[in-house]
Design a protein that fits this description.
Two copies of one chain form a homodimer. The first copy, chain A, is α+β, with helices and mostly antiparallel strands and about 350 residues long. Chain A contains 13 helices and ten strands.
DNA sequence: GTTAGCACTCAGAGAGTTAGAGTGCTAACG
DNA sequence: CGTTAGCACTCTAACTCTCTGAGTGCTAAC
């Protein structure tokens, strides 16, 4: 592959991204850093087409990049833009600080991405996979009705109403609370396996059968905690984008099929996936630019942008990168802003 | 207004709903229960046009019903279809039973409506407006961190973490809990006015300033409870409907402007509103067929269908009616499935 | 009051034309 | 031998023109 051909490929992608129209040899020849005639470019473009990097919508039209062309461009050819310092400051302000709740942090990142890129932004919350259960309370609220409250070291709170077969006595409730306290305090959310649960159900059943719904309730709550939630913001941008099929976009907005797994399976660093490359996430001409953020060095969630394939990668990728890095560092616990581990707990 | 003219108007609407094409005099004359010639029908149709019930897209086309025409048809002319028993059973199964959480109940109703009508369905959740606060707990979970738990008589549970300036002593917490218990138990969610809150903030501040964030927290939780949420399902059906303007549909999906109020302001019974009649909800040729469901006899939320104006009213209206009635009866508490009011409460 | 007959209208489909952007190929150039 | 100018060719998109048929309104007869 010729040096000049690569330069021309890059120019075609840049032009196509800029104008949205198939790019002709003439418009390339007019560019500053290109000093060959349109005829030469025509020859090179024909070669690039042969190699599968470009294609023609129809015979007498200009060329458009193929998947392969975009891929090469993204991986090798483009020169990412730098983000101006003042923009960085603006973003930092939008995001929040160490005191901002994690939930809000990723939401703010989504908003920022939507505003900057004019595309849809997608974020997943930070799954408190490695956080531990710091408190479990069971609160009676009516005849045979109890509310279970589960609090984790990372500050997540979940509740659930639970109906038992009989009312519990004071002692029974005490027994249960102590039992749970003993067995679950300090257990990480991810460790709460079914097996562990089954053992606990068996253990409490030995004491009193009707306690087992409570254990199951706790189990369900911890599943809720493990649940990764996906939020798409600015999805309207996709609809007003005419290279995307409206029908597919609407279906996507409604069902968000497969996006979760796609984000989950990404490697580290900013990833670009095209809509048609993988059958799971299927908006035809779309592109997903995403990255995983970390919390205390461990992968916690993802954030990214969904737009048309014809999107300004050299501008967007640095933003996704910056936000990922920023979120990661904001989530790193200065051990100050999380609800403390159980040994620090005040009992009322 | 002639008996025959009404019959012809009904026939035109039925035909138009069936075919989607402007209806000519000839096709009407061929119908079973019409025994006059096309010329006669032409005369009557001209009269109906004069009266504003029909209109012509252009001179040499058939006729199409106007708003006024649809209105008359819906209010007076159409004979609603009966829903077959087996269909009712199917719907009942889709919805769930008395144990199904309310949230899920309305979601299921939306899914059912989308499947049956092939239109978008819209539902609002049941706002526990008249339910009363049955329990407030404040649970310490870390240094200066507290979780507020709010439970209502209808079984809604909300929680919220809250950071105070200082840690509370045992007594302070007791004082607060008692104070809240005294002032809020039995107060309906809707009554929790700002004024009331301000008074409470003032009262607890007199005892200890740093308690006021807790009061504010409770206030926010009750606001959460009052929040009516609107869910539109199957909105892709609107896009594949070619009599609706894609752009308007997209805007609607995005903002759902005014729909909330529109649903809120409906009278009892199934209501039909046309898109262009009210400026708030503005998909041009659309029609909203909605109804309010009740819980324990009080209006709780709405459900309905959004489709093109050319929709099979005589089929859809009975379904909306049936679902409303069914949801209402499923939500009626046999006094068995809700968390009981405060006087029945067991204190731990 | 109802109907048959007829002239009239108009949207939409299809065919033909044109303009222009862009190509591939060939031959000349340095 | 790579590069370039020139030219014939291709194909789409926009436009015009024509034609067809469904449907109308009106009139005169039943």
């Amino acid at each position: 592959m010729d040096e000049r051909k690569l330069k021309i490929l890059a120019a075609v992608v840049d032009e196509y991204v800029r104008t949205g129209e198939p790019v002709g040899s003439k418009s390339i020849s007019k560019l500053e850093n290109i000093n060959v005639s349109s005829a030469t470019i025509r020859n090179d473009m024909a070669a690039l087409e042969q190699l599968g990097y470009l294609e023609q919508p129809h015979t007498s039209a200009g060329r458009v990049p193929t998947f392969k062309g975009y891929r090469l461009y993204i991986d090798e050819l483009m020169t990412p833009h730098d983000i101006p310092e003042e923009e960085k400051k603006l973003i930092d302000e939008m995001l929040g600080d160490k005191d901002t709740p994690e939930e809000l942090l990723v939401q703010n990142a989504a908003t920022a991405l939507t505003e900057i890129t004019h595309c849809a932004a997608v974020v997943t919350n930070a799954v408190p996979r490695f956080s531990v259960i710091s408190k479990v309370e069971v609160i009676p609220t009516g005849k045979r009705l109890y509310v279970i409250l589960l609090i984790t070291s990372s500050g997540n709170i979940k509740n659930k109403a639970c109906r038992l077969e009989f009312d519990l006595s004071h002692e029974q409730l005490d027994f249960f609370t102590h039992y749970i306290e003993e067995n679950l305090s300090g257990v990480s959310v991810d460790e709460l396996s079914e097996e562990m649960m089954d053992n606990m159900v068996a253990a409490v059943s030995a004491y009193m059968v009707s306690l087992s719904p409570l254990v199951k309730g706790i189990c369900e709550l911890s599943e809720d905690l493990r649940q990764q939630e996906l939020t798409v913001s600015g999805s309207e941008k996709l609809l007003s984008c005419d290279e995307l099929d409206k029908m597919e976009v609407v279906k996507f907005i409604e069902y968000k099929d497969g996006l979760s797994e796609l984000l989950e399976n990404a490697f580290s660093g900013v990833q670009v996936k095209f809509g048609a490359e993988n059958d799971s996430f299927a908006i035809g001409n779309s592109s997903l630019i995403a990255s995983k953020y970390r919390k205390d060095g461990k992968e916690a969630g993802s954030l990214g942008v969904i737009g048309p394939m014809r999107v300004d990668y050299k501008k967007i990728i640095p933003y996704v990168e910056y936000l990922t890095q920023r979120i990661s560092s904001l989530m790193d616990s200065g051990d100050d802003d999380i609800i403390n581990a159980p040994d620090n707990l005040q009992e009322p």
